[in-house]
């Protein structure tokens, strides 16, 4: 075979090496969710890439086999040709023949190694890591044919690899783990923010949602000393006055004992009481039932309980002692941060207080209209 044909064959081998490297890195770096979306849209390449990701060890074994064969062929065929060219060049000098041969061999090895490393390794690896999904989809169908052709050899290599893996006490996996724990997701979110992939608002929302899983009720509840309570023997007018003075839309109703919570009153329910009944005791049904939770319960569990019972207020009890109050809004604020509306006159002092919220403000507006009508 002429030296020119050997060099052309060497170029093909280097490109083949780049192909195997690109397949290997793209299958490991590609995001399965994006590949699945393309596969569902009908992309043949995406379906082949998805099959490869599900049998990753076989794909990697085929790629490694291809890289090894290419490297051996390059050393066997191409290096002597390049080395001979430099040996002839140095032969024109006054150097001894042994020195010329050694220099030619060394330079030939260096050139082949550099070209193989840059064109056959680094460039395809960079391309695969820059656009792993696109590269995997483009190359997977061809690589599937290669895997089918070398499957007997791959099966043997895969069997040996599994034995070696088990010898060190590790069970081999056929695909990369796709599930992540909450701490792992938190690290990914932080890296995405640092890389500029997430806006500040998106980052804060995701961090809040992940941290929400670890938050306990005691961390967001309004403590007892900030709660507004009314005895169950109070009149509607007294409860109205208390709501008006406190600015809270919800007040707890206590029984005979200081820690006996019978429920809570809502400002809008008091508004609906006819004026001729406001001097009487609280009418039946106006006191709403509140959930009861412990201070060390997780917010996640409380939210599920609220969704199941469709109740959005919970009292925090510990061995019969009232510790505080938690509302659905407190839970949402644990995820998205402080929630304010157009009626809020300033920042809240304590999380969990519904001070000057829209419903309390509505109560005061309604009371003002009622008083004005009476004066007229």
Quick description:
This protein is an alpha/beta fold. The chain has helices at residues 3-29, 32-40, 44-54, 56-91, 97-130, 132-149, 151-167, 182-194, 200-212, 236-246, 267-271, 299-309, 328-336, 358-375, and strands spanning 222-223, 229-231, 250-254, 261-266, 291-293, 313-318, 321-327.
Which structural class do the helices and strands define?
alpha/beta
- Give the % helix: 55-70%
Number of domains: 3
Strand order of the largest sheet: 1-7-6-5
Compute the gyration radius: what is it?
37 Å
* Beta-strand share of residues: 5-15%
Average pLDDT level: 79
Cα separation of the termini: 113 Å
Query: Major beta sheet, specifics?
Result: 4 strands, mixed
- Low-confidence runs: 345-376
Number of helices: 14
Order of helices and strands: HHHHHHHHHEEHEEHEHEEHH
Number of strands: 7
* Overall body shape: rod-shaped
Note down, in words, how this protein is organized:
The protein has 376 residues and is an alpha/beta fold. The chain has 3 domains: 3-167, no CATH class; 182-212, no CATH class; 217-375, CBS-domain (Roll). The chain contains 14 helices and 7 strands. The chain has helices spanning 3-29, 32-40, 44-54, 56-91, 97-130, 132-149, 151-167, 182-194, 200-212, 236-246, 267-271, 299-309, 328-336, 358-375, and strands at 222-223, 229-231, 250-254, 261-266, 291-293, 313-318, 321-327. The strands form 2 sheets. The protein has a 4-stranded mixed beta sheet. The protein has a 3-stranded mixed beta sheet with strand order 2-3-4. A hairpin with a 2-residue loop joins strand 6 and strand 7. The chain is rod-shaped, with a radius of gyration of 37 Å. Residues 345-376 have low confidence and may be disordered.
